Amino acid sequence: MAVHVLPGRERTLHPRYAALASHYTFKPKFCLPATATEKPRVENRVFDLQRQWATPVPHVADLNELNVQLRCCCLKARERTCGGQAETVAVRFAADRDAAGPVPEHAFDACVLTPGQVDKYQTVRFDGNSYSVPRRYAFRPVTVKGYVDHVAVVCGGQLIASHPRSYGRHQRVLDPLHFLVVLERKPAALDHAPVYRDWQLPPAFAELRRSLEGRLGPRTGARHYIRVLQLLAAHPVSRLEAAIADCKSRGRIDPPSIVAAVERLAAQEPLPAVAATAVPLPDLAQFNRLLSHSRPGDFADERRDAPVAEGQLQNAEVADHAGRV
Prior knowledge:
Elements: E1 2-5, E2 11-13, H1 15-23, H2 42-53, H3 63-77, H4 89-99, E3 112-117, E4 123-126, E5 129-132, E6 141-146, E7 150-155, E8 158-164, E9 172-173, H5 180-185, H6 189-192, H7 194-197, H8 203-216, H9 218-229, H10 237-250, H11 255-268, H12 300-305, H13 310-324
Parallel strand pairs: 5-9
Antiparallel strand pairs: 1-2, 3-6, 4-5, 6-7, 7-8
Helix pairs in contact: 8-9, 10-11
């Protein structure tokens, strides 16, 4: 939170913590250095929660499942009382929330922002590790956003890559989809590059490759298989797997048939629902503000150019006819 500890309660804030305080409009207040009496039981409370909620150690599949368990513990703890108070934690929290200001509509983007440069290997470094991006962004400056569980790479205001965050050192986190263009020029990388050798695809893809190479030969079959893999740049794995199964049932295992099948499946999928938006009608009276206020004499030219009444028009035509006679 603080980059430098100054005398008293003064601190030099970390830029991201200063952005957090600005987003939620609060003023940080720091304790005095080496004054434990200003924050009683803060450190011990961490060990209390570890003993109550994480003993024994929870067995979960990922961080999301752990967060679900911890949220249930938090909701259960809201019903208790503490510190000699008669009201529960939930009641006191509701009172504090009502007394506080409104929460911003958009949540704070809790990440570390770091400028980066994509190298010739289509990777950008962050926190000692390298993360891949698509080929067209090689050698371009990007912004790396480091979250707790993932790393996002942004270029020109657009998200171009997202990876699970690695907390190791000198590791390469690569997405095989980012190297499909290179794979077309270097088909041998399909068997030798770790990014493809360790790629976990459904069994239908391995069966497709064996079928193509057995029928067309290893070289031609591998190139046809690469053409199918390149469809993953525009279609999810599940859709392409269904297209391969559909072509297999029809007895037509070739790239053109798979392309037609995956496009047909994409057209059959329903479009995502779009929330209805009410657009108010324009207030045409607002254009009256563009009109200037008139002054006496401003309409002299208008009276001269204005059309005459019907009787005046008839008299003018008679006088004109008499003049010609």
